[in-house]
């Protein structure tokens, strides 16, 4: 493909991504993957270039752009190679018309920038939210040891006890160590969130919002497969991804439980007052993961944020019923907004006078309210709020 044709293809993909963001459709990554699958004429260099153009254009636009073309014109304001490619050539974008304008830039829609600033995320902290994410791995201690594991490419150790970092784009999923379950792809921040649970062999641990089980697998390894580990979620699809991953990881103490929204306790009745620890990796705005999902900024509005904060407080209250006296409730969100983090946790403690915040000792992060905040700027991880009550 010519460079101009790559730009035009990226514009068309951006149109689909904008449409999907408007209608809560597929994420950008999936839209790209599907296009690559259906358009085999695009070689690996084309695919890489298109992916980079699309994500650079998404990052360059704060609010949702009106069209893929306006998003690409905005990228042209910060990337000097782009404007000349609006050349009207075959398969390339039409020349820029008089008065045609680029989409607005910025880090996020204005309302969201204000919410972030109110949570002390501004300036370089905000810029870092849109940088390229590193590629972090967790060595699965059920199968391997970080000190002796040999990998096909250089990897540096991270602050997480079993963490490694490799060059972004490294095809780790093709490595024997990945296929054999010796490594998992997991951001350092997620690994530290699991560390905060301090799950011990023999305990009963509930991963209440287990999703596809990224954190469940780390908990199984921390428990050395000993004890009961419940992985529950209301999303059948996500939860169904856990079994093959657990098999590969050699994790054998996991029981998955599908929950009905608003009736979660029915399926968890056997565990009422039984858990040594409950992890709530709550659904959230994902403001801490924009490095990976930059178009998430366009999907969020104040109504959606209010819906998420309601679920978070509901799940926190639910966890109180599951934990045994003296047990731990670990609350995690990959958000940097206080209403989903420090503020939410304060309100929770205010509703439950029998619970106390437990101080966490993690190798990264800074105190925020009664918990710890990790941020891309300070810690080089995804953004997280992590807190524990007991
Ligand atoms: C941040 S994601 C979890 C990610 C997962 N723990 C991991 O490490 O891969 C939040 C999850 O909460 C789930 N969820 C939403 N409402 C829920 C509810 N009422 N009860 C349990 N899980 C819920 C969502 O389906 C989603 O999978």
TrEMBL record:
Keyword RNA-binding (UniProt)? yes
Source organism's superkingdom? Bacteria
Mention one GO molecular function: methyltransferase activity
Which residues of this UniProt protein bind S-adenosyl-L-methionine?
233, 281
Q: Which UniProt keywords apply?
A: Methyltransferase, RNA-binding, S-adenosyl-L-methionine, Transferase
The SAM-dependent MTase RsmB/NOP-type domain sits at 102-390
* Pfam families tied to this protein: Methyltr_RsmB-F (PF01189)
- Record bears the keyword Transferase: yes
Q: Which Gene3D superfamilies match?
A: Vaccinia Virus protein VP39 (3.40.50.150)
PANTHER family associated with the record: NOP2 YEAST -RELATED NOL1/NOP2/FMU SUN DOMAIN-CONTAINING (PTHR22807), RIBOSOMAL RNA SMALL SUBUNIT METHYLTRANSFERASE B-RELATED (PTHR22807:SF53)
Q: What family classification does the UniProt entry report for this protein? A: Belongs to the class I-like SAM-binding methyltransferase superfamily. RsmB/NOP family.
This protein is called what?
RsmB/NOP family class I SAM-dependent RNA methyltransferase
Q: Which organism is it from?
A: Qipengyuania citrea
Q: What is the lineage of its organism?
A: Bacteria, Pseudomonadati, Pseudomonadota, Alphaproteobacteria, Sphingomonadales
